[in-house]
Every structure is written in structure tokens, then in C-alpha cells.
Specification:
By secondary structure, the protein is an alpha+beta fold. The protein contains two helices and two strands; from the N terminus they run E-E-H-H. Strand 1 and strand 2 form a beta hairpin. The N and C termini lie far apart (81 Å).
Length: 79
């Protein structure tokens, strides 16, 4: 069996002071992947694709909540 591959570049990992980046190079000889079908519930499909988009482009780094307003409330338990 002979398999021929051609990549657009090299995949790799780059480390910085505060982050790491992963880059993947696609196989240029691979057939494109696609789906053909009918969508029975257009609203649910739209919401699912929108959610997937938000997951893919999101910044997953930890962001602490701003609790300054909460800590500024008076203590009601002291009576």
C-alpha cells in the first residue's frame, strides 16, 4: 500500500512566556469533507452551529468574576 501526503507546512508547538500555541498543517491532497442533507428544525440547527462557533473562537483562559459590588453590600446576618 502506498500513501502520498502533501502538507502546506509543518505542524508544531510554540511556547511563549505566558502561553503556548499549536499549529496544524492540513493535508493538501485530502478530499474536502462535507455533508449534504435536509434540516428539519432550522432554528435548532442554527443555534447549534452558533454555539459551536462560540466554542471554537472562545478564549478559554480563566477570568475571575468581578465581585466588588457583592463585597460592597451591607452584612445583613449581624442583625
Amino acid at each position: 500500500m502506498e500513501v502520498t501526503k502533501r502538507y502546506a507546512g509543518q505542524s508544531g508547538v510554540a511556547h511563549g512566556d505566558h502561553d503556548s500555541r499549536i499549529s496544524f498543517s492540513p493535508d493538501l491532497l485530502r478530499e474536502p469533507a462535507y455533508f449534504v442533507g435536509n434540516v428539519s428544525n432550522h432554528v435548532n440547527f442554527r443555534e447549534a452551529i452558533s454555539t459551536l462557533h462560540h466554542v471554537v473562537v472562545s478564549d478559554m483562559r480563566f477570568k475571575p468574576k468581578d465581585r466588588t459590588e457583592y463585597f460592597g453590600l451591607p452584612d445583613v446576618s449581624s442583625g
